[in-house]
Design goal:
Blueprint: H1 6-60, H2 72-79, E1 85-89, E2 95-98, H3 111-117, E3 122-127, E4 134-144, E5 147-157, H4 159-209, H5 223-273, H6 279-310, E6 319-321, H7 323-333, H8 335-340, E7 344-350, E8 356-358, H9 360-376, E9 383-390, E10 394-401, H10 408-411, H11 431-441, E11 445-451, E12 455-463, H12 466-482
Parallel strand pairs: 7-9
Antiparallel strand pairs: 1-2, 1-5, 3-4, 4-5, 6-8, 9-10, 10-12, 11-12
Helix pairs in contact: 1-4, 4-5, 5-6, 6-11, 7-9, 9-11
EC number: 2.7.13.3
Main location: membrane
Subcellular location: Cell membrane
Length: about 475
């Protein structure tokens, strides 16, 4: 017997189901075959008995009395049935005469005889007391002038029929055994077709568990197994990609941290040495230290923000927010940086301005990051357009630049954590990931469209709550009245 496992389970379950099905079919077949043969014999004897009693009542019964038995041998010849013993019994159940010529036990009390005494025809199947042979008997009353005179009883042996039924059943059992053997072979093939690919996939998973992400599930599997193999291969590819992204991030963040730390250390050592006599140089050194310190704080805050967002620990202070005022303030905040790069910022609004519900500081963080990215990748003397559009159920903010754009291979990944289009370009690769998380926490959506070399559009959709819908409706009605 093969060892426990999926193969054994499939074979056993398949075998048991088919075995039980064959058993049920065999039992039904056996019962049906026996019933068919027994009913055929019973019908022949019942029809003969009916014909005999009808003939007796019409032509014979009135010519004789109950005590006159001289005509009984004639009745045996007249009502005889081939291969069947005919017995004539009195109303006590005693056999008066029999076509077999053998002496029969007195006082028969089988169910067919008892029913015949009561005036109805009946069938009985059982074993004869003297021989133990299984027989079928059909008894019917011979009625004259409303009274039962004799009982006509046909008796036939079932041994030959039983032997024939047994032969048929043995053949059926043999067929069932052959079917089970075929089913067993098929179930082995079916089990192997399932177990073999699972074993291959399990071996691949074991290699992955040991850190070998370069291996792939090989083989053209169908249906769910094919989907599982494809999913595992995709997972391995994503793990390799994520590992590469992680390595790029570590390299990038190391560079980002090393640069300001080097500057801080250099100026600190210089200031500690006391070699500066010029107050302006000292002030410059302190300014650089402060600037690099702020840069480090920004990096750490970005990492902490992302960690809190991943752990769902960021709590939003939900208040009415004027998006127009917020973006106007954000525009002024980045104006100095824009002027240095000679980039013009343009803000326009369409629709009826209404407040949304959100966290002012977090939303400012979202738009500062988006506009800062737009400035970072814009050409000198270019434009950045900020458009606010109010719709019945949401406020749509679009920030569009005319910069370098993003390639198609990067557009779907730029909002993933640690992902950078250019790993050597600086930054942590967390800015857009944090931005997307914050927008989604506000119940909104962030999408990016870009054409390489032509520019990028970042679209933020924020929902307007039901109370604001009423404000919009009231304002629209008021404008109609004024018009």
């Amino acid at each position: 017997m093969f060892k426990k496992g999926l193969r054994r389970s499939v074979v056993m379950h398949y075998f048991i189901v088919v075995f039980l099905t064959i058993m049920i079919v065999e039992v039904i077949f056996m019962i049906s075959i026996q019933a068919y043969y027994y009913n055929s014999i019973s019908n022949v004897m019942t029809n003969q008995a009916y014909s005999s009693t009808s003939y007796y009542q019409k032509f014979i019964g009135t010519s004789y009395t109950e005590n006159d038995t001289n005509y009984l041998p004639d009745l045996l010849k007249m009502f005889a049935l081939e291969n069947t013993e005919l017995q004539i019994l009195n109303t006590k159940g005693d056999v008066i005469i029999s076509s077999s010529g053998f002496q029969v036990e007195k006082g028969l009390q089988t169910s067919d005889v008892i029913q015949a005494k009561n005036g109805s025809q009946s069938r009985w199947i059982g074993s004869q007391t003297s021989t133990g042979e299984q027989v079928m008997a059909v008894s019917t009353p011979l009625i004259d002038q409303g009274q039962t005179i004799y009982i006509l009883r046909y008796v036939t042996s079932l041994e030959a029929i039983n032997n024939k039924i047994t032969s048929i059943i043995l053949i059926a059992i043999g067929v069932g055994v052959v079917v089970l053997a075929v089913v067993l072979l098929i179930s082995f093939g079916l089990a192997n077709s399932i177990v073999k690919p699972i074993n291959n996939i399990t071996a691949f998973s074991g290699q992955m568990a040991k850190g070998r992400f370069d291996v792939r599930v090989e083989g053209d599997y169908r249906y769910e197994l094919g989907e599982l193999a494809s999913s595992l291969n995709y997972m391995a590819e994503e793990i390799v990609r994520s590992d590469q992204v992680k390595n790029d991030f570590i390299s990038s963040i190391s560079h980002e941290l090393r640069t300001p730390l080097t500057g801080i250390k250099g100026w600190t050592e210089t200031l500690v040495s006391g070699n500066f006599s010029d107050p302006e140089e000292t002030k410059l050194g302190m300014t650089i230290i402060a600037k690099e310190t702020n840069r480090l704080i920004g990096l750490v805050e970005e990492l902490l923000d992302f960690s809190r967002l991943q752990q769902k620990e960021v709590r939003l202070n939900q208040d009415p927010v004027d998006i127009v005022a917020l973006l106007t303030e954000t525009k002024l905040q980045v104006k100095t940086k824009a002027d240095q790069k000679q980039v013009r910022l343009t803000l326009n609004v369409s629709g009826i301005p209404v407040p949304i519900i959100g966290d002012t500081n977090r939303l400012k963080q979202v738009f500062l990051n988006i506009i800062d990215n737009a400035l970072k990748f814009s050409h000198t003397q270019s434009n950045i357009f900020i458009h606010i559009e109010y719709e019945p159920k949401e406020c749509i903010i679009t920030v569009r630049d005319t910069g370098i754009g993003i390639g198609e291979e990067h557009i779907t990944k730029v909002t993933e954590k640690f992902y950078q289009v250019n790993p050597l370009g600086g930054g942590t690769g967390l800015g857009l990931a944090i931005t997307r998380e914050l927008v989604e926490q506000h119940g909104g959506r962030l999408s990016i469209t870009s054409i390489s070399g032509e520019g990028t559009s970042v679209i933020v959709s924020l929902p307007i709550c039901d109370k604001v819908h009423d404000i919009i409706k009231d304002q629209a009605e008021e404008e109609e009245l004024q018009a």
